[in-house]
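Notes, Module 5: Reading structure tokens.

Key idea: the token line is not a picture. It is a compressed description, and you learn to read it the same way you learned to read a sequence, by spotting repeated patterns. We will look at two proteins. The first is printed below with its tokens.
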Amino acid sequence: MLNLYPTQIESVSLHRVGNKNRNETIFLSAEPFSLNDETTGILKEYFFKSFREKEENYFYLSNEVDVEFNTLHKIATEIFNDPSSAHLNSKKIATHLFDQSNHPHIKSGEVYVAYLTGLLLDNDKVDAIGIFKSELKHDFLQFEEKEGNLDILIQQGININKLDKGCLIFNTNKEEGYKVLSVDSNRYDAKYWLENFLDVEALSDDNFKTKNYLKFCQNFAKDVVLPAEDKQQEILFMNRAVNHFAKNDEFEESTFINEVMENPELIPEFKHYKVEKGPKYSIEDVSSFDIANKAVSDARRKIKSVINLDTNIQIKLDFINPDSADKFIEKGWDEERQMYYYLVYFNKEEKS
């Protein structure tokens, strides 16, 4: 778990990176940016808001030969060994990003390299390097008193409520490639930030395994359970799957299958689906792990429990108490109307 509230920005270096494909240039500031209380508060919100709002999907810096050949790993190590070198090394980071900025879709923008202290990662205080990029410019209005009138000036700037791209490189797990957290709001070229610039691989921790196994189950429900049975059973399967994760601290696949798969005919289908689709979610060899509660909560919020009917009627099933949907909803076929129907049992209508 990451807590960014106690973070202190020790230094920020500001540069501008253009697009090589359009013959744009790079501008490197001679000195670090001079912080004051006002700019520090604004930059903290701008830098960190997107990280507080996203799922914690961690990566590590990598290289096909050895992590020491990863450009950012080398630069980050120099900064962590000597924080006073942050500005000099920020120029290397900006230059490395400029070298990757040769796709025609890549937008020019400002690059901020910050040295951060006091971050709490899994309750341990760590330092980090923040690399952030602003890309999209927005029109805004300024007003000026001029000759007895109020005049409108149209200017352009960035939206400080939304970070375009950013990453945090934590000073932990150096040998494995440091722990990295990344955001990318403008995915016009998915390889540009994560692959070409950062060169990272997903960190297969318990959060990663929990999240990906539930995503795998969600697609199994859509691809196999729904065609074999119906929408109600698809939702009920995911209800059982999420509730199994929610009430257990450890995941064991055989126990999960026995508890969640009510239709025994679907068990071989589940195993076959895992062989076929498991590599996509990096769970092909995963059969046990510690369950990450945050990943379960995130999955529960995202999974829809609504049956949409072509008669403009919706039936919303309770995701907390799936037994209600199983006991009090029946599906049938009306011969006279030649239509399916759902029969719902209840004692009284609840007040909204």
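Here is the second protein, with the sequence above and the tokens below, as before.
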Amino acid sequence: MTFVVTDNCINCKYTDCVEVCPVDCFYEGPNFLVIHPDECIDCALCEPECPANAIFSEDEVPEGQEVFIELNAELSDEWEDNNITEMKDKLPEAEKWDGVPDKLQYLEK
């Protein structure tokens, strides 16, 4: 099992989660983070650290957001050179975007 970054991370990209990851399985895109499913050890340390509540266990991904399971796998391979291991500043308008539903259309690959 793995953890999955979902919709609410888009345009927020808080990085509190990467600070606690013992295996450095987060990868960064322009406005979103993903978890590499083959590297995640299911430790659950990242989930409570996400200020946007965007990280879920694979079997608890909210209804309608199942597409993010495949997106995390796909984008972690695409962004393999963008492994993120230290906290960075959130995106400038993170507070504005936090909680906005249906943000998949804004995902930058």
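Summary for the second protein:
- Residues 3-83 form a domain with the Alpha-Beta Plaits fold (CATH 3.30.70.20).
- The chain has one domain: 3-83.
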